[in-house]
Amino acid sequence: MNIRYAKPIDKDQVVSVWNYCFEDGEDFVKYYFENVYDENNTIIIEENDEVLSALQLNKYTIDLRDNKYDVSYVVGVSSKPEVRGLGYMKHLMAYTLEELYKNGEIVSLLMAIDYRLYKRYGFDHCYDQIQYNLRTDELLGFRLSSKLRKATFEDAETLSRIYTKAMESLNGYAVRDEAYFNRFIKEVNSENGYIYIDEENNSYIAYYIQGDTFFVRELIYNNISSLKSMLAYIYNHNTQCKKTVINAPIDDKIKLIIANLKTCEMKLIPFMAGRVINFEKYIESLNSCNIDTQKIDNKCIKIKVIDKYIKQNNSVFKISVCDNKIKIQRVEEDYDIELEINSITQLAFSYLNIDEIFMLNEIDESSLTNTQKELLNILFEKRTNYIDELV
């Protein structure tokens, strides 16, 4: 078993393993391996020049707690059928986590087909979306307030501006620039999708027509007027598409303006997992966030972190605030609280607050002082997360 980064000669085999494991269309696979795939970000297991397992570490920047983090998004985790159940994936993931730490990354992302496969490696659930399922004719009451047009590559900068404005109230989102949207347009096109833009109302919609279903991947808007206009645009497909499915952020406002919520099915869709790669650097990075440290100045807490795969995280850390600066150091002392890296991750991504972590891990709240709980609540503030990156 040889674990290494891929070489150009390995590409065809990586594509073959991908095609065996995933049900993506030919055009999407072509798009992905021509526009996204990079052998320098691909880790494989090979034996006798045969690629048996692979994954990609696609590069993104996310905005977490108003701080920018360069992250690797783990995708395409795949193995040939003859080596499944033989521990290959365990070796591949362990190697990958070591590489991410060595490369200085602080947090990482992963879209899990089955969370049970990845929780053991410290990845845990950090993002949800709302999915609306309704009859298209339920959108009858909305009216177009301006004319939409099909987005082209020349609109990449405008799409980036609309998206960035809409993300201001959200957390954990991918930072998207003009180059990103040029690629995004190609991605949607590769699956026979459409992107329409309403520049006057500062909004856009990315969607697919799947038989009699109008499937909305993204509906990005910046005011209620633009949302209503977009819903009218969807309604105008009612003779073509009897059903509409809309994926949206958790704080989406569609549920507040549709006429009859009773006839609309809403689902909570688990979307993305995260992981803290370097706990020490993550705590240090909080100094760049807009945290009110005055309330916790001269306070401290000692946390024992349990991480089975990144040994550098597996320690007791003393977190203190002195002169409004957050500090962290390894100590060989008794600890105030013990947390698995999974719980640390859900706190760091602002997905759960400390009270929820106490409840889920059956931790006695009285084990901490009120001052220590206040310190944790301020350091790990719960927010509304959103991300929609597929690869």
Automatic annotation (TrEMBL):
It comes from the Bacteria. GO terms for biological process: aminoglycoside antibiotic catabolic process. This is N-acetyltransferase domain-containing protein. CDD domains: NAT_SF. The lineage of its organism: Bacteria, Bacillati, Bacillota, Clostridia, Peptostreptococcales. Residues 1-168 form the N-acetyltransferase domain. InterPro entries: Acetyltransf_17, Acetyltransferase_Eis, Acyl_CoA_acyltransferase, Eis_dom, GNAT_dom, SCP2_sterol-bd_dom_sf. One of its GO terms (molecular function) is aminoglycoside N-acetyltransferase activity. Pfam families: Acetyltransf_17, Acetyltransf_9, SCP2_2. It comes from Intestinibacter bartlettii.
